[in-house]
Amino acid sequence: MAPRVIRDTYGFALNCTEEQYITRQRCDEKQAHQAAKWAKYSDKKQLPKGEKLKKLCRKGIPPQCRPWVWLSLSGAAEKQREHIANYYDAMVHMGESASEFAHQIDLDLARTFPANDYMSTDEGQAALRRVLLAFSAHQPAVGYCQGMNYLAAMLLLALERSEENSFWLLVALIDDGGILYQGLYSQNLVGAHVEMRSLQELVDAKLPRLRQHLENLGCDMTIIATDWFLCLFSTSLPSETAIRCWDALLSEGAKVLYRVALALLKTHEDALLAQDNAGYVLREMKLASASMHDRDALLKVAFDGVGSMPMARIREVRSVKQAVVDVELARRGRSRSLREAVRDSERHAPFAAEGMASLADRIKNAYAARMARSIEHR
Amino acid sequence: MGARQTKRTLLKVIILGDSGVGKTSLMNQYVNKKFSSQYKATIGADFLTKEVQVDDRLVTMQIWDTAGQERFQSLGVAFYRGADCCVLVYDVNSQKTFENLDNWRDEFLIQASPSNPDNFPFVVLGNKVDMDEGRSRVVTEKKAKQWCTAKGGIPYFETSAKEDLNVDSAFQCIARNALKNETEEELYMPDTVDMNAQAIPKRNSSCC
């Protein structure tokens, strides 16, 4: 049967098979059922407490409740209260008048969900631009990092296009002490390195067959999961599925990313084991993720099918990996400064630079050899 | 060496360069014969494959595309592993993207740590030559070629992914150099040790 072309809740075009279409309808029905359970909280705009809240969020927040629920769950509303009333406007102004990140932001506007109904409009891109510029002014040490464009765009779509709410959610996610791991988007993506290695460790422990196979193919988690952690699944999963993950992420924290990542790998383990090359593993994973229309099924595996994963364990793994990554990136930084110095001297004193260049080559080779060894030992 | 013939040859090619120079577009133009100004910004990595004929051999080229923002360079090691050729792309209308070729090349060599870095095949593409009918161009062909010569004779192509200019011939050259590298890497495998063998520095520019 010919695939159906539909538009989902957030204005993304989807090709789905008849079977996927039926799955989606079933999920929509369940969602409608959940909406009834939220009604009493929605009236007073007051969140349920404790376990009840966690449970309800795992089953999905009704789309119409997301704006107030997300703001309050994530700490964004609190952040907003801590700042002056027109803080967002001030940051937009600051970002617009001078941001070293404007160039990169502008490059990415038209490349952020270009097929989405809203993000393909001038209006949508202008809103995205303001949110990203404001964030880069608010947090200049992070500025703008690719990946954040997708976050901000999903926020605009989920929060009824409110720029200000999207901005505060971004702040709640990325600021130090926020929901995502520190330094995830920082200058050398140190946090992303840590998250990838920590995920690797959990995969090693929980999916030993897959671990062995990926190791044989030289396929580490960075290949598979970088965009999962930097875009919070918004570029990998169908938007409604991704948003469901965000419901739980905002309520329980970044360990949800690990749960969903492991659930995706586990669900498609057999298909991944059948691939004989790192590239094909990546392709299989991308295709499989893009067709995860059964959001209930994915979240069921994430929460009931990957074993226990206390935050304390993740913190412990992260702190070990952080120490290793810090050392490696510092070494990388030193070698890079040296190379730049050599290049500078080449430009200014080409003859004297020859000796320097061969010295630099020797250092570079020694460094490369050490990198290779450290990879083998991992 | 009979075993090599029966094994399917898979060539891994990495495309590097600053954000927005057209890496994804070049790859798509070559593989899918399509141009769109609407590609999603690449986060992490993506790749396309294409079957190519190089002389009498049919090979599969796996072309990897990565994020171009500088801070993503540090993640490269995972993606560059096992590469057979590295394509460096800059935008002829942007000086900065040209100057950064040095960085991309260095990073690649360090992170991929190929067995023979001095002879590892690179190909440089100066993209977007169509833009504004060449009036906004700031990096001259001469300047680019000088750089390529200084780096040991890297083949150079001026391309437009949009107008499909020179894209095929550039990738033919890329495939050829990747295949040569792959073959040489296999020759380095010590299953037969020739005590008299010497590493002969090869010229990359034979096909162009």
Explained architecture:
The complex is a heterodimer of chains A (378) and B (208). With 378 residues, chain A is an all-alpha fold. Chain A has a domain of 60 residues. Chain A is 70% helix and 2% strand. Chain A has 19 helices and 2 strands. In chain A, helix 2 runs antiparallel to helix 13 and helix 6 packs antiparallel against helix 7. The termini of chain A are far apart. With 208 residues, chain B is α/β, with parallel strands linked by helices. Chain B has a single domain, classed as P-loop containing nucleotide triphosphate hydrolases (Rossmann fold), CATH 3.40.50. Chain B is 33% helix and 21% strand. Chain B has 7 helices and 6 strands. Chain B has a 6-stranded mixed beta sheet with strand order 2-3-1-4-5-6, with helices on both faces. At the A-B interface, helix 6, helix 10, helix 12, helix 16 and helix 18 of A face strand 2, helix 3 and helix 5 of B.
Strand content of chain B: 15-25%
The CATH class of chain B, by name, is Alpha Beta
Radius of gyration of chain A: 23 Å
> What is the 3D shape of chain B?
globular
- Per the CATH scheme, the topology name of chain B is Rossmann fold
Tell me the name of the CATH homologous superfamily of chain B: P-loop containing nucleotide triphosphate hydrolases
- How many β-strand runs of chain A? 2
The CATH level-2 architecture of chain B is identified as: 3-Layer(aba) Sandwich
The stretches of 5 or more residues of chain B where confidence is low (pLDDT under 50) are 1-6, 190-195, 197-206
Give the oligomeric state of the chains in this entry, treating copies of one chain as homo and distinct chains as hetero: heterodimer
Enumerate the strands of the largest sheet of chain A in spatial order, edge to edge or round the barrel: 1-2
Which strand order do you get reading across the main beta sheet of chain B? 2-3-1-4-5-6
Q: Tell me the overall shape of chain A.
A: globular
Low-confidence stretches of chain A: none
Count of helical stretches of chain B: 7
Largest interface: A-B, 53 and 35 residues
Number of helices of chain A: 19
Tally of individual domains of chain B:
1
